[in-house]
Structure formats: C-alpha cells, structure tokens
Specification:
The complex is a heterodimer of chains A (about 350) and B (about 180). Chain A has about 350 residues and is an alpha/beta fold. In chain A, about 40% of the residues lie in helices and about 15% in strands. Chain A contains 10 helices and 12 strands. Chain A has helices at about 5-30, 35-40, 75-85, 120-140, 160-180, 205-215, 240-250, 265-280, 295-300, 315-325; strands spanning about 60-65, 90-95, 100, 110, 115-120, 145-155, 190, 190-195, 220, 255, 290-295, 335-340. In chain A, the strands form 2 sheets. In chain A, strands 1, 2, 6, 7, 8, 9, 10, 11 and 12 form a 9-stranded parallel β-sheet that branches. In chain A, strands 3-4-5 form a 3-stranded antiparallel β-sheet. In chain A, β6, α5 and β7 (about 190) form a beta-alpha-beta unit. The longest helix of chain A is centred in the N-terminal third of the chain and has 29 residues, at about 5-30. The radius of gyration of chain A is 21 Å and the shape is globular. In chain A, about 60% of the residues are buried. Chain B is built from 2 helices and 9 strands. In chain B, strands 1-2-3-4-5 form a 5-stranded antiparallel β-sheet, with no helix packed on it. The N and C termini of chain B lie far apart (about 100 Å). The interface between A and B is large, with 100 and 77 residues.
Chain lengths: ~350, ~180
C-alpha cells in the first residue's frame, strides 16, 4: 500500500494537468472558432481577451431603468459621467418601457405606468435618443466608454406578438441609424430588450415576439426570470427549460441578462440549470451570460424592503458567476452587472 | 548531495509514469476539444455579432464629432398625458407575474397623487381575486377580494368608488382611497 503513494501522486498530477489542459483547450478552440467575435457585441472590440476568463470580482455596475420620463438626457448624461469615472469601456443599460401594446390608431408601443400610460414607438425612440445624446455629450472627448443601450418591453398583457417584436426590432434599427447619422458609433450601440417571464404569457406567444424581432435583425437582451423552473419544480405557465433557453439564447438575436434578485441564489441556480440544458440539448450550446441584473435600487426608490429579493449588483453578479462555474459545461464569465432603478435622472 | 537509493529511484519512476499518463490524457483531451464543432446556433449568433462589431470598429476608426463644453438637452420631451378612468390594456404593477396577474385597471387621482388600481388575481392562486393599489413612487398594496371567485375586473367607477366583478359575475364595491371593500 505504501508503495502505491508515489503512483497516486503521479495520477494526481495527471488529473490536475488534464484539467488545466482541457480548460486551455476549450478557451483556445472557442477563440479560434470566433466566440470572441460573438461576444464582442457585448464587450469592446476584440475584448474577449481583456475579459478575465474567470473574473473574481464584480465589474462596476450600470443603472438600467424602469422608465418614468421621456426626457432622458440627464439620465444618459449621468451614466456617461459615471462610465468615464469608473473606467467602463463597455457596458449596458436596459430602459424598460413596460408592457407591449398598440393604441387605437394601431401604432405599436408600450404601456408604461411610470410614465402614465401608453407611449408609441416613435415617442420611445425620441426618448432613447435623448438618453444617447446625454451619454455622448457628457463623456469626455476621446472617451473610451461604450454603452449598449437597450429599450425594452415585457411579455405581459397579451400584446407581445410577432408583429410587435418586428416593430420593436425596426425601432432598434432606427436607433442605430440615428447613432450612425450623428457619428456616435464609437461610443453607442442600440439593442432591444425584453423582460420575458413565464408567469406573464404562454411560451408560444413569447417566442412569437422573439422570433418576430429576430426576423428583422439586430439583437435583444432577455432580462427576464425563470419562475418556478428547475431545480425548484416545473417552470410556471406551461413553460419548459427549452422555452426559456430559446428566448434567452437559442434564438440568434437573443442575449441573456437574467434577473438575479433572490438573496438565496435560487434565480442564479435556475439560470445555470437552463444553461446546462442548453449545453446538453441546445442549438447554441451553453449560455454566455451578458450580465446579471439586480433590483436593490428599484426597491429603495419606493421604500420597498423587497424581502428576500434584494440582491445588490455585486451579489447578483457573484451568485450567477459562482453558479455557472459550478459545472464545467456551463462555466464562463458574466460580462456586465446592471442594477435596475426607478429614478428619472 | 542526495544518495540514490532503490527506494527513491522507484519514487522517480512512479512519478514519471504518472506524468506520462497525464501527457497522454492531455493530448487526447486537446484532440477532442479541437475536434468539437461549434453548435450551429452559436455560429448564427456569431455572424450577427460580427456584423455589429464591424460597424463598431468602423466607427472607432472614423473621426468623432466635437462634444459640447457645457452639455445640456436640446429640449424636453413631453411625457404622455396621465390617463383617467378604466383602461383595458394597461401595463402591470411593479410585482412579478408569479405574485399578481392583472386583468384591467383604473387610473385616477387620490389626494392629488397618481394612483392605479389593478384588478386581477393572485399569481400563485388564480381562484383568489386580488386588487393592487399602486400610488406612483410608493410600494404597491395588495387586497384579496372577500369572495374567492377568480380574477376580478373593474367594471365601473364613480369618483374613487369602483365596482369590481368576479369571474362568476358577483359585483363588489371597492374604495380606491382607502382600500376597503363594501
């Protein structure tokens, strides 16, 4: 038995070396295959190289918004100044305009209760442009700050149709055309966003919206939840992990910014399990999470303790990072951290 | 100077055998990883992302417009008018769908403040009718209906006094200012 010790040591060396080599090989193959390019949409050009493979500390967070005004210049300005001060070469801000809908004239838009009612897509577009103008104006000349601006809707209310998804994607195209026409492309890029939650609509309706968006082109962030999903039971409202995966990553336009609100870590676990489903069965493999979203500020804004769902940005990011790295099949980095707020400046 | 005994020679051989094993396994692992194809769905995402990145790269290389020395907005953008009365296609209260599902809502002013009363049902128990009063900027308050007849909706309003109807047709009076039934 004593003579076996050196052999066991050798075997241990073999195991460790193999693990290291496998990790290196995975990273090498991923880069070689252009995964860095895929993720560059969410990070600065060629930035996979500057993103740590397994970052140990949370990145500086941005404020996303439940939008309460269309005069968003100051909001964008303040975010721009913060980005320069914090040294955020790449970041995202989701601007949530509420539930999808259309008015009596048949114009698509969103029901935004913080704004006080229905806002049309042209109105939303104008508001987002003020945000982007503010961001541009208030970053310093030569700034390296880059903002992915993502106006979003939910899948609540039954109006999340394929046609609405297409209209939203056309709005994103218009916003990018506005960026180009103002020569702001060195610091700004527009995507869509969607708070897709199982409890709010059947999966078929939600996938219709997502596929409608995808058909037009562009990309969107899914900043939704996975209510009820494994390992805590079955996803609510007839959804499956496959449905969650489809709208958060499987559809080419989709990138994932999941809500990681629960202090217990349950939401992070649910998303890791969805990613694992994707690694085993999905058309696009495991999910590469763009960001984790927290709601600490949104709760504080209305004096709500949000008991049990009050993660800070750092907690949300750390939970998701830790959870996905609990399994080699889902291991990776979470690029950004964003905190939703109800503030209007 | 260390003495080479048969025992530490055996030790060296054992470690060498282990290291050789590591090398073999590692070479196999690299081969497998290198052979792993990119999932087709990921390739589609990469193509889109590449397109976006090219646009960004081009913008980085282009001259940048000047920035204002004193940033200020060109003009305020008008927010939509605050609606009033019963609205059928409204947004949701700031509650997760697993907690509350709304059917319709009443918009009004209570004590000079914007208030929305959402009618609907519990997200976890659809048989329990619920009403959510949300004064903008404050925490929403939820009230269960006195009868369990499914989701309720706002059918009529007179000032801040609302008439709700259940799925079974029962009419319930509700005071938006106090959150009281009856």
């Amino acid at each position: 038995m004593h003579a076996m010790v050196p052999v066991l040591v050798g075997a241990g060396v073999a195991l460790v070396a193999t693990s290291i080599v496998i990790v290196m090989a995975r990273a090498h193959v991923a880069r070689a295959a252009g995964l860095g390019a895929a993720l560059a949409l969410l990070a600065s050009s060629g930035a996979l190289a500057v993103q740590p493979a397994l970052a140990a500390s949370p990145p500086p967070f941005t404020f996303s918004r439940y939008v309460g005004t269309l005069s968003m210049y100051t909001m964008g300005c303040n975010q721009g100044r913060a980005a320069d001060a914090l040294g955020q070469p790449d970041e995202l801000a989701i601007l949530d305009f509420g539930d999808p809908g259309w008015n009596s004239a048949g114009t698509f838009g969103a029901w935004d209760n913080l704004l006080g009612g229905f806002v049309t897509i042209p109105q939303i577009e104008t508001g987002v442009e003020t945000y982007m103008q503010g961001f541009w104006d208030c970053t310093v000349p030569g700034s390296h700050s880059f903002m992915n601006v993502a106006p979003g809707v939910t899948n609540h209310g039954g109006a999340g149709t394929a046609a609405h998804g297409q209209a939203w994607a056309h709005m994103v195209k218009d916003l990018n055309a506005w960026i180009t026409s103002h020569s702001f492309g060195s610091q700004l890029f527009a995507l869509g966003a969607a708070d897709l939650e199982p409890s709010w609509a059947p999966p078929a309706d939600t996938e219709a919206w997502a596929n409608g968006f995808n058909l037009v082109g562009g990309n969107y962030y899914d900043f939704g939840s996975a209510d009820g999903c494994p390992p805590f039971g079955s996803c609510n409202n007839g959804w499956s992990q496959a449905d969650e995966y489809a709208v958060a990553w499987g559809i080419p336009a989709a990138f994932a910014v999941p809500e990681i609100f629960t202090e217990s870590g349950s939401m992070a676990t649910q998303w890791q399990q969805i990613s694992l489903w994707g690694a085993n069965h999905g058309s696009a493999g495991a999910i590469h999470f763009s960001a984790a979203m927290s709601q600490f500020q949104a709760c504080a804004d209305v004096g709500d303790p949000c008991s049990g769902t009050d993660n800070t940005p750092a907690q949300a990011w750390s939970q998701l990072t830790s959870s996905i790295n609990s399994d080699p099949k889902t291991a990776g980095s979470v690029f950004f951290s964003t905190e939703v707020s109800r503030q209007t400046t | 100077m260390p003495v080479r005994t048969p025992r530490n020679l055996r030790l060296r051989w054992a470690v060498l055998v282990g290291a050789a094993g590591a090398g073999l396994i590692a070479i196999t692992a690299v081969g497998q990883a290198a052979a792993a194809p990119v999932p087709p769905g990921l390739a589609a995402k990469m193509a889109r992302a590449d397109q976006a990145r090219q646009g960004r790269d081009a913008a980085q290389a282009a001259p940048r417009p000047a920035k204002p020395s004193r940033p200020e907005p060109a003009a305020a953008v008008a927010d939509p008018a605050w609606p009033s009365g019963i609205q059928e296609h409204t947004g949701a209260p700031p509650l997760p769908g697993s907690v509350f599902q709304s059917t319709n809502a009443w918009f009004g002013l209570v004590g000079g403040r914007r208030v929305i009363v959402f009618a609907g049902a519990s997200g976890s128990d659809p048989s329990t009718g619920e009403v959510v009063i949300w004064t903008l900027g404050a925490t929403p308050h939820t009230y269960a209906t006195p009868v369990s007849e499914g989701a309720v909706r706002v059918a009529a309003a007179a000032g801040t006094r609302l008439t709700l109807t259940t799925a079974l047709g029962t009419a319930l009076a509700f005071e938006a200012a106090s959150g009281q039934f009856g």
